[in-house]
Specification:
This protein is an all-alpha fold. The protein has one domain (2-255). It has helices at 2-21, 27-49, 55-72, 74-90, 118-135, 138-150, 154-174, 181-194, 196-202, 205-227, 241-255, and strands at residues 106-108, 114-116. Strands 1-2 form a two-stranded antiparallel ribbon. A hairpin with a 5-residue loop joins strand 1 and strand 2. The longest helix is centred in the first third of the chain and has 23 residues, at 27-49. It is globular and about 60 Å long. The relative contact order is 0.22.
């Protein structure tokens, strides 16, 4: 868990610096920094996608995973979690019961007046985007396995540096929601570390490659959402694809295909 703890500290430090000093940066500079993060995320997504040996597996994983994610409402659940955290810790208004993150709504508060939930949308977007960015990628998977099996957290340390700078840029624009992504890092990345022995025993190189390529497609979606704010790709609903991809590889191997 050493690598995960370092990662969490890096994100907290980066987020804090972004919240403290990000507001002092001119808007054009912050937009440029976020655009740079979006371009870099897109480039990493492409690099990860090229790990695939069979693009059809990636396509099938994305389609099946997306359908399951929509059915289970994964992104809606993450949005509700983000709104709950904001209501508890950020003292902002929360969305109404039908809120799905796709449009601005008005919500009466105790005084009888109404306010737009733009700040809630900003919090949720920061929480969701940062959580996905920090948890999807080969460094997360391979670094967590290496840390859990051998105690070597070098890969996660490198990832922590990248995440820290990304957190600074995101927090300066998207606010405190980025900081709460550490909860997802702890649950997801820490969980992978604790289960490293079992994962290592089950995962083969082709399975890791196709999972990495599938994660790359998801990172491309995040990059699009960052670069074009009017886009609303529900990347969170594709998370099951990370499990579907290695399963497809295993099934094809069992069938001798």
């Amino acid at each position: 868990m050493t690598g995960t703890i370092i990662n969490i500290i890096a994100v907290l430090v980066g987020s804090s610096l972004g919240l403290l000093f990000g507001g002092r940066l001119p808007e054009r500079i912050r937009k440029t920094v976020v655009a740079g993060i979006g371009l870099f995320t897109t480039a990493i997504g492409l690099q990860m996608f090229f790990k695939t040996q069979n693009p059809i597996i990636v396509l099938g994983s994305i389609l099946v995973g997306g359908l399951l994610g929509e059915w289970w409402g994964i992104e809606a659940g993450l949005r509700r979690l983000g709104a709950l955290l904001e209501n508890r810790f950020a003292n902002r208004e929360v969305p109404g019961p039908n809120y799905d993150g796709t449009q601005d709504e008005l919500l009466p508060i105790s005084s009888g007046s109404s306010q737009k939930i733009s700040e809630t949308s900003r919090f949720i977007r920061g929480f969701l985007s940062a959580s996905l960015l920090f948890c999807v990628g080969p460094m997360t998977i391979l670094g967590s396995i290496k840390d859990g099996l051998t105690g070597d957290y070098s890969l996660l340390a490198i990832k922590s540096v990248l995440d820290g700078f990304a957190a600074l840029a995101f927090a300066s624009t998207l606010g405190i929601g980025v900081m709460f992504s550490t909860l997802i890092i702890l649950a997801y990345q820490g969980g992978l570390t604790l289960l490293a022995a079992q994962v290592q025993a089950l995962m083969t190189t082709p399975m890791v490659n196709e999972m990495t390529a599938t994660g790359g497609v998801m990172l491309l979606g995040i990059g699009v959402n960052i670069l074009w704010e009017d886009k609303n790709i529900h990347v969170g609903n594709f998370l099951p694809a990370l499990v579907i991809a290695p399963l497809i590889v295993a099934i094809l191997k069992a069938l001798g295909i």
